[in-house]
Design a protein that fits this description.
The protein is of the alpha/beta class. The chain has two domains: about 250 residues, no CATH class; about 190 residues, no CATH class. About 45% of the residues lie in helices and about 15% in strands. It has 20 helices and twelve strands. The N terminus is likely disordered.
């Protein structure tokens, strides 16, 4: 099923909220303090939020629907030691463990001061009501908009959404458990009037007193798992010990994967060699651009990278200085079927621009993006955030790998290839890619550049 109304909004980071991309998880995770996170969540409009721990990452490996829900979420919050260790494997230290049991009550306390209300959806019959009473007692002024259980109350999406919207809630907490709650929100969050929605796992059970929570001094000693194991040995031993071990083993393999290392070696070798060997061409191109028109030599533009992480792509400027301002007026002149805009007679292109585009010289500065690790030599072309926001669900698969300077699309006709066919090519590449295939595509790229087919 396609969910065209749901934007891939990870391409546009939340204002004021720092995130960091973890290679070991292939995810962009919030890297901010409790206070900074709460302030950003309450002040940035519509957001779909999920907590990520080792168990969640393991589920992603076997559940495609859940993986899509996670990758299209607005915000992913680090929850637990597994994610913290994964960050350390990337040479990073996250600012805080933003687990839901601590963060959500603190967020609701701040929301209460702003007059906002919350709806609790999920849990066994009676659990949401008990959790709501606990919150109302502990947080003076908090408005409980309503509750609904996760059994009969969750059988009918239409009825659940109608009840939540009728309540006028500003915040919706969904406690259906992983992966059901994330999938439910992926399917329905855009239909909720509430701007802020969370998947909160077992939070209602903690608040209702169904399960125990480690006291503060135990949590601060980083021994919370001991307390939890003492309370629920069988289920939690499997989830926290076996689950974390499985997750960390997978993360370690990913971090030191021979294929990953070989591909990165190829990228760095080709990019560095191109930077040195083509430096005279770079200089001549820069001079020609400056002679013909005013403005910078290089053009920086936000594009969407692997797993929706935005980055600044670099090109030689081939258009007039105010080209971005003129783009909206030219969308109807696109020569290409589908979402991505391409016009053979684009009036914004300069004379030098037409030449460097046909010769693919304008793309060469992206070797710097490759050296920075934002792109690969071979991969799907990086899309604009506005294009990704309009993707059908199947096209999200293009974002499973790093974008490239060249790829199957480029060596098969470039702009002469329609959007749907381009997606098919990119999905096939993402599922079958090897270092040998990358080398073959690099060699075929030279033929494509010489022929100039589809380049405009």
């Amino acid at each position: 099923m396609q969910h065209a109304a749901i934007d891939f909004r990870n391409a546009a980071p939340v204002i004021g909220l720092k995130t960091t991309y973890l290679n070991t998880l292939d995810l962009s995770i919030v890297d901010a303090s409790f206070d900074a996170t709460i302030d950003a969540l309450l002040s940035n409009g519509r957001q779909r939020v999920h907590f990520m721990n080792a168990h969640c990452c393991n589920v992603m490996q076997r559940d495609h629907a859940y993986a899509m829900a996670v990758r299209t979420a607005d915000i992913l919050l680090p929850d637990g030691i597994g994610v913290a260790l994964a960050a350390k494997m990337d040479g990073k230290a996250l600012a805080a463990n933003l687990n839901g049991t601590d963060l959500v009550p603190a967020l609701l306390a701040k929301a209460a001061t702003q007059g906002k209300s919350v709806f609790l959806f999920g849990g066994t019959p009676g659990t949401a009501e008990k959790a709501a009473r606990t919150l109302a007692t502990k947080i003076p002024g908090l408005r409980i908009a309503g509750t609904r259980d996760g059994y009969e109350g969750a059988q009918n999406d239409e009825a659940a959404i109608a009840a939540i919207n009728a309540s006028g809630a500003d915040i919706v907490l969904v406690a259906l458990g992983v992966p059901q709650q994330e999938i439910w929100l992926h399917r329905n969050a855009h239909r909720l009037d509430a701007p802020l929605s969370f998947g909160v796992g077992a939070l209602f059970d903690f608040l209702a007193g169904n399960v125990s929570r480690a006291p503060a001094f135990v949590r601060k000693a980083r021994c919370e798992w001991v307390w939890r194991l003492a309370n629920e040995p069988a289920r939690l031993a499997n989830r926290y010990l076996v689950g974390n071990a499985t997750f960390m083993a997978r993360a370690a393999r990913k971090a030191v994967s021979p294929a990953r290392m070989a591909r990165r070696f190829l990228d760095v070798s080709v990019a560095a060699s191109a930077l040195v060997l083509l430096s005279p061409l770079f200089l001549l191109t820069a001079l020609a651009i400056r002679v013909e028109s005013k403005g910078p030599v290089f053009f920086h533009q936000t594009r969407v990278g692997k797993n929706g992480v935005p980055f600044q792509m670099i090109k030689f400027r081939s258009m007039v200085q105010n080209a971005e301002d003129l783009r909206a007026t030219l969308l109807d002149t696109s020569d290409r079927d589908g979402i991505c805009f391409k016009s053979r007679n684009d009036p914004r292109i300069t004379r030098i621009g037409r030449f460097i585009r046909r010769a693919s010289i304008d793309e060469l500065p992206q070797v710097w993006n490759v050296l920075r690790g934002e792109m690969s030599i071979v991969g799907p072309r990086p899309a604009l955030p506005s294009e990704v926001a309009a993707y059908p669900a199947r096209a999200y698969g293009r974002l499973a790998v790093k974008p490239g300077i060249t790829g199957v699309w480029q060596v098969s006709g470039r702009a002469d290839i329609g959007f749907d066919q381009m997606v098919d090519m990119d999905l096939a590449y993402a599922s079958k890619r090897t270092v040998l295939l990358d080398v073959i595509i690099i060699l075929l790229t030279f033929r494509a550049v010489v022929s100039g087919r589809g380049a405009h």
